[in-house]
Specification:
about 400 residues; alpha/beta; 13 helices; 9 strands; globular; binds iron/sulfur cluster
Length: about 400
Amino acid sequence: MIDCPSSARVESLLSEAALSRECACKLISCSDNQLPLLLSAAVAARQNFKPGIVTYSRKVFIPLTNLCRDYCGYCTFRRDPGQPGAHTMTPNQVLDVARAGEKMGCSEALFSLGDKPELVFHEMRETLRYLGYKSTLHYLEAMCELVLRETTLLPHPNPGLLSAEWIARLAKVSPSMGLMLETTNASLLAVGAAHDNAPDKVPGKRLHTIEEAGKQNVPFTTGLLIGIGETVEDRVDTLLAIRDLNRRYGHIQEVIIQNFRAKPETPMHDSPEPTQGEMMRTIAVARLLMPEVNIQAPPNLSAPYYDDFLDAGINDWGGVSPLTPDFINPEKPWPHLEHLNSRTEAKGYRLRQRLPVYPEFVSALTAKPGLLSDKIAAVADHQGYARRLA
Ligand code: SF4
């Protein structure tokens, strides 16, 4: 029996106030026999939130630079200058990808990039000087504005840690932005752990960025990376930290539950990957702790059983591209959008395309006059979802 709150009934688990840390820790560790009750409660909570709808964002992935000053133990995206595949995109390359995505009905330009590479690599400083920018963030800001002005795509930058000033600057050229919290377990910064030699992965610094976004009412995407050496209790604590920030600022538009995948060429190549059961439990507890926040799990990292996550309480598939690969996990292709649609419908839900900013945050953004507001209004339908343009 799951003995929290007081009885093993779905209704009792739906009471958010009753879900203490202790209870959440029990639920996330529940036995296979107890799992159906947890999943039932999560699906009921999800249905109360957005009945019948599952969303995704049709996007292009723009890896602005894969140079990064951090060395996360699981990352295959990052490069040092001179390594095969090291690359910083030019403005023309950015625009070409965005225009190609526009023709394929995409509405999001996801900018993913390494964190502050110019601080450690003179090659990046020279590239930025050649391009005419003082820093990677200045270049990112200009490329977001370029895409916003020249296409119908809306930028969603993921540049790592940001100061209050940079959140304000990027918020003028993008309706939403993101930073994975990953975990609140600071011991993963220790020698030999996942975040050894990753100065931008200090949990307190990441929480600070997310909080600054909250103070400025910026719709924000964050989430957990599970299986990188944290405990199940750490997963609960990370969810509670996100919930706490959302309770204070109401700006968390989406929580991603992402599973670590072991990759041959990384220091963590032989670390165990989280099981499907761990993913289901983490998603379900996230849903119960945050019943009115969009919960997402990337389908390409859990093929072929990704649609089971609909039984654990997700209501979004995140960004899926008909054009560009997942440059963070290039060996894991996106599902074909027709497959995603048919598998979502087979579970009884209707798939809808959203913008990078979720519908419930759209009206606040369109209320502020300016280029960003005009561009959002041009691509949003009357409910705040993506209007089909292609
Ligand atoms: S996960 Fe991000 S911060 Fe870490 S090494 Fe890769 S690109 Fe850099």
